[in-house]
TrEMBL record:
Gene3D superfamilies: P-loop containing nucleotide triphosphate hydrolases. It comes from the Eukaryota. Coiled coil: none annotated. Keywords: Signal. InterPro entries: P-loop_NTPase, Sulfotransfer_4. This is Uncharacterized protein. It holds the Pfam family Sulfotransfer_4. PANTHER family: P-LOOP CONTAINING NUCLEOSIDE TRIPHOSPHATE HYDROLASE PROTEIN, P-LOOP CONTAINING NUCLEOTIDE TRIPHOSPHATE HYDROLASE. It comes from Trieres chinensis. The keyword Signal applies.
Length: 114
């Protein structure tokens, strides 16, 4: 177990940028995963609670519109190149789990292919 933990810690990001995208839906341990990722050095971790409460202290102003635009694009009601940019809006986060990430697996993988 210690060897695995050391390996994971060695891969933790040294600088900002999305490194981990968890696409599991809410109520499946995502809050525990969020806390674990932050302990392992992949924080701050974006979670639906951030949209509502900003627990990490990072502003999520405009994020409700961000996710609305993503839903409209996914449903074909908004052209692919219009609306708020996911990469730009999430640039301060190193990981993300729960909703709304889980609602947009294709968009998340396109925005953060690494």
């Amino acid at each position: 177990m210690l060897r695995v933990l050391v390996s994971v810690l060695a891969m933790a990001p040294a600088v900002g940028g999305m490194q981990v995208v968890g696409l599991g839906p809410g109520r499946t341990g995502t809050d525990s995963l969020k806390k674990a990722l932050e302990i392992l050095g992949f924080g701050p971790c974006y979670h639906m609670s951030e949209v509502l409460i900003e627990l990490s202290g990072i502003s999520t102003e405009g994020h409700l519109e961000l996710w609305r635009d993503a839903a409209l694009r996914a449903g074909g009601a908004l052209p692919h190149n219009e609306g708020k940019d996911l990469v730009e809006a999430l640039r301060e986060w190193n990981s993300g789990v729960d909703f709304p990430f889980a609602m947009f697996p294709d968009e998340m993988l396109e925005a953060f292919p690494e």
